[in-house]
Amino acid sequence: MDLVLRNSTARAETSVTQRNRAMTKSRILIAEDHPDSREALRELLEAFGFEVIEAMNGAEAVRAALEQKPRLILMDVMMPEKDGFQAIREIRQNPELAGTPIIAVTAMDGARELALHAGADDYVRKPIDIRRLIGLVNGWLSREKIERT
After folding, report:
1. Is 0.90 topped by the overall pTM?
2. Which of 38, 39, 114, 149 is the most exposed place for a label (fewest CB within 10 A)?
3. Which element (helix H / strand E) includes 87?
4. Residue 101, domain CATH
5. Could you tell me if residue 13 is inside a domain?
6. How many whole angstroms separate alpha carbon 45 and alpha carbon 133?
7. Angstrom distance (rounded) from CA 139 to CA 134
């Protein structure tokens, strides 16, 4: 009996893993000016199987989004050259990226409303709750796939 349960569990885990791998081949843009934060996010997302593009400021984020067409964007709102709010507004002006999910990431008080008003779809507060972030990323990517079909 125990062997049957273990085999069933292994098959179920394999099925979930295969489904997650298929979903996580998505390209994600991380726009974050702090190198340590950017690296931590990159390593986390890559561990979950995502392909990651990085930008160090808002201007780079806009360029990378236009050139690379990521499936999702994680946008810090406090960055040099161009803040995340302005970068979000510019990205939203491009018809090809208008539906790309953007999750604002910040420790700034009151940023949630500003980010949503700028065009972000969601918001994560720093320090980041990893489970919440991965849940949001997977949720937005699932929603995007459903809307495309």
Report:
1. no
2. 149
3. helix 84-93
4. 3.40.50.2300
5. no
6. 10
7. 8
Q: Phi and psi of 21, rounded to 5°?
A: -65, -40
> If pLDDT is split at 50, 70 and 90, which confidence band does 146 have?
low
128: three-class secondary structure by DSSP: coil
Helices (H), 94-148: 111-118, 130-148
Domain that holds residue 121: 25-148
Interior/surface letters 65-87, b for 16+ CB within 10 angstroms, e for the rest: beeeebbbbbbbbbbeebbbbbb
How many folded domains does the chain comprise? 1
Answer yes or no: is 97 within a domain: yes
CA–CA distance, 115 with 85 (Å, rounded to integer):
6
* Structure tokens, 146: 């459903």
